[in-house]
Amino acid sequence: MSVEFVSRPDFTRADAGIVRTGTWDVGTPERQRRTVEAIRDAWAGREWPRPGPLSYTVHAGEDGRTLFHYAQWKDEESHRAYARGGRDARNADVDAAVPGIERRGPHTYELYRSASLGGPDAREPGCVVIVDVEFEGADRARQRDWVDAVFEALATDPAPAPGGIGGHFHVSTDGTRVLNYAEWVSAQAHVDALAGPGNGVGSRTPQWERVQNHPGTTGGGVHRYTPALSLRPGVQGR
Q: What whole-number distance in Å separates Cα of residue 197 and Cα of residue 179?
């Protein structure tokens, strides 16, 4: 089963039951570049695993040291089966090329809702912004309430940010987190949106205030990444 290089994950595919994410800290921009190359070689040099992910995407953090990993899977069992089989060989190749990687996470999510943030969806993202929201205790209804509140705020915003392409909102399977995989035309477009009159991306409206002061939120973070690598099975494996 061959490997196909693509520009981004397909968020519309119905067979992606879960998403696994994680962050690697590799230390320096040079090691960041070498790690992406090592991941590319480790996957392109082998047939696509079966069972295996439906897609595998890596983004380089603008901090020059981190890599964000986003993998679509059919279900938890397919991931467990892969972990028992071919995962270690690929990781061993990467670790041999770039020793000392610090791996953080992973977290398991389900895609809940996606939205266009203005403009044609066909635009390729020059920047991916990962927004993490953490909640006090597990509450699956609260996760979805927060996401729904964001959608209401987006729909009623009188001046939406012009550089946004799309937002893909994921809820963790343990009920404690939300992740927004936000695509932007560029990092500068996101910087400009943050510099607007609102608190973060969004205007000063009651709907955005509800999002920002939602009960039960305990923390989170916002991190910008440059798209680096996205893979999926070749045509014969899809």
A: 24
